[in-house]
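Students often ask why we bother predicting the structure of a whole assembly rather than each chain alone. The short answer is interfaces. A chain on its own may look different once its partners are present, and contacts between molecules only exist in the joint model. In this exercise we take two input lines together and write out one structure for the complete complex. Read the inputs first and try to guess which parts will touch.
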Amino acid sequence: MACAMCSTRAPDGKAAMSELLNIDDLHLEFHTYDGVVKVLAGVNLQMRRGDVLGLVGETGCGKSMTALSVPRLIPMPPGRITAGRVTFNGEDILSKRESEMEAFRARHVGMIFQDPVTNLNPLFTIREQLVDAVLYQQAQGKKVPGRWRGFSPSVRQLRKEAHERAVELMRLTGIPDGDKRIYDYPHQFSGGMRQRVLIAMALAGDPDLLIADEPTTALDVTIQAQILRLIRSLVAQLGLTVLLITHNLGVVARSCERVAVMYAGRVVEESPVRELFRNPKHPYTRGLIAAVPQKDVHRGGLEGIPGIIPNLINPPAGCRFNPRCEHVMDICRESVPPAIDVGAGHRASCFLYPEDA
Amino acid sequence: MNHLLDVRNLAKYFPVRGGLLNRKTADFRAVDGVSFALQEGKTLGLVGESGSGKTTIGKCILRLMEPSAGQILYDGGDITHLKQRDLRRLRSEIQMIYQAPAASLNGRMTVGQIIGEPLWIHESLKGDAARARVLELMHVVGLKDEHYYRYPHEFSGGQQQRIGIARALAVQPRLIVLDEPTSALDVSVQAQILNLLQDLQDQFDLTYLFISHDLGVVRYMCDEVALLYLGKIVEVAATEVIFESPKHPYTQALISAIPEPDPDLQREEIIIRGDLSHSFPQRGCPFAPRCHADKLATCETVPPPLLEVESAHQVACHLHPPVPGLEPA
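Now the answer. The structure tokens for the assembled complex follow.
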């Protein structure tokens, strides 16, 4: 069987450069008993086809929320988008009806998550779960012919093709003996293999965008290296666009072309990956890089960032990093710094840099 | 140099039960003959992937778990079979700091009670004297006076870990077993805690057994590193030696897999196949099924012993036999 993905996703030059995703000034709030949590406060993010963008930040900075707003998987209520636009392939996502969203998710966005255990149903074999995913994606969010209707010849044929596709996906994601292991249950797979199954499931609909939310955080380093290599090879093979969410700067340095650094609900810096590590501009990014134990840092040489992340019910006015920043100025406490172009496709939201540079 | 802690052939087996009568059918060898020594005032890193037995070793040293075989010598005395009464005195010498700061603190006790409890148990200290000591300990780890009456859930992860550290310090231990103390924390907070641990080590002359899976953190914290694979030590050496010239194929793969935050770093990436599995036949080298090096016939049949291949550098690999010329005279 010809791989459907390879044929549809031949990266021809023009389409490869076009803009795929545009998140513009997105504001997201959560209404809780303690008050309104301003989770996202003006997130801007652009991705072109074929991009591998790393979204980095610490716990609670809003990186997962930004990503979940693309397939619109944020529970509303308690969540509420108060301002901003999300466009995917030129289509406005936020104004779509829920029924349209189902078709959209099936066709355009694949997601993998941190914990490969809780995302697979322990009561069903991998075959049942993968075949369902393939059928759902083929039906583009409409009703899937159920297992119990497998007596009708057309449905049987459909399920047979879906089974072949599932085995093909397992081969693509590097699961050995996919044709036999497809009959196994999730507990018979190791953590790394389960993550591969989830990647296979996410690829079932031949998506334009793969959102990987901390895909290697629960895995050991040797397995992490395997999964990152798999994602890189999928990007090369299928021309996939990947949004990789992680808190690990090392993972970004290894896998991404561009990086966006988030802090307390805003993107504070965005840059090609080399430029960011060689020439970090925002004080938060500098602090983050200095906090990672690196090769030539010896005893006592590590610097943490003083203080803790702000409470987003009452975030600090102006730049949200100002209470922890060593370069804080008066203006930082009053207004929000705009994203300033500092050259080489590198933008930083900080008043340290003159606006017309 | 005298060794504060000397672990010899430590083993911990868990019974595997099965069959109709649920009888013991096999041993699960979580720790399988591990020996190492720790000098006073130094930090030894125990590194390995999940399931390699690092936490089990830590618990055996504190006698929170009974070792199945082997000997643990602390300050020259055998503590492997200490009675319950003597264990209490031992525990004021050896303390532990845990991975999940929230789970290791009692949510119904205030910070003052948490840090004060060991003072009451070990030194019968209470009232104003205890309070003064607790406040002093809180200052040492960077907590403020007003935190005394707060509960653990009111703190961030990093602050909770500081409470755990203060509690461990309360009894003035000489050895602290740190079980993944920063793996639940964000990097900026991790850096704060690592620096605090180093300051405390200098200030109180502490000895650390540092258990971690994060090689970057281990490189920063430790004087010496022991790598574990499936309950066995595969390589031990000084930190610089391990990171500059690793010998064991597993160590090499692990070091090449560290995600360094440096996109320009040119290095050979060794990706090993498969994953850690206890279900291999217990013959030969435990790493053999995943090994990327050119294997010898003996790799599959004879378990490699841990041998000194250079001075103070021990490796358990058939590919690295001890070279007589390299041995110190």
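Check your guess against this: Chain B has a mean pLDDT of 87.
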